[in-house]
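Appendix B. Raw example, untouched.
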Amino acid sequence: MIWFVLLLLLFLMAVPIAVGLVIVGLGYLSVGGRVDELIVAQRVATGIDNFALMAIPFFLLAAELMNRTGITDRIFALANCLLGRVPGGLGYVNVVASMLFASMSGSAVADAVGLGRIEIKAMTAAGYGRAFSAAVTTASTTIAPIIPPSISLIIFGVTSGASIGGLFLGGLVPGILMGLSMMVVVFLHVRRHRYPPGPKTSARDTLCAAARAFLPLMTPVIIVGGIWGGIFTPTEAGAFAVLYALILGVFVYRTIGPREIVTTLYESALASANILFIIAVSAVIAWLLTMEQVPLHMAAAILDLSPHPFVFLLFLNAALLVLGCFMAAAPVIIMVVPIILPATTAMGLDPIHVGVVMVLNLMIGLITPPVGLCLFAVAEVAAISPVRLMRALVPFFVPLIGTLLAITLIPEIVLFLPRFFGYAS
């Protein structure tokens, strides 16, 4: 317990997550007199010795390439042609565009930075309040890690051993529910402030926008369809997404050249290294927990306190909502999953259900201070203070928490598609 508190203190002191994990792991081994550099090095190496983890840098690179090739502009233009003409239409366009981009990138931060600039600029130019425009953008970024492909679901699958294809299927319906429920909040806000409808677009303009967005929209069809159809693994799908984005950017649209590709590779490498380094060093912590039989003791204690699966999931949600406010999703998944997995297995909970619930929960932390990566990213893009953005964001927590409770208490929302395709029993 002391070491866990120390880890939280290090995170609150803005110590890099991976460094904090190393300090706690080596500190525990030093106090116990059991430091063996070779074993620690082996654990760090084996922590990322997993083929499925290669999907993370591939999808991050694909998302960066899509942002730089102008794909985000095409997606937003199509959504605007479909919904921009209704009163307050740009609010709905914002959510729909995020849902479409989510099916390509799997990264909330990529959504916030890439689509965010386009969405906020268009909404403020049309007379929408800057705070509301930023709030819709911020809330809709949480959809990206739920609708497949999803980097967070890949990390959960690798950590828990659950089927990544099944997790992708399980996230589809909850992601759609998140988008629809956010549109209800937009509708109520638009009705109260009486935003005018946008300019009407002709059928020809809509068809042109659809034609311009057709090839980008084929990305999720090819990637996710290929995974579900057994044509390729999630890692191979990530590699194909990179190849497809390069073909679109270099040969079809001709919007990127060698210099942009090098810059994209560099930035993606930094982001990938950050995530994979956390995963690597967290393997030491997971090893220590297993060696001390912490997961087994925790599972027994959980079963004694809350033997009912849904009571346990509600307690887990409460704990994750707090952790998500202070930590990024990846380290929470890596540290918490080995502890709770024995208990969830004993209760008969499906790991696909647990994974989607856990990831959706942690996505709420992305828009919640004090860490809130997407909150601060969108605040910077919108040029407003995070406090002002947080006030405008409050109504959007209702659909997010509502969707979380719905998928927690009604597992079929998550498990319907995985069961249909044979990924869950």
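End of appendix B.
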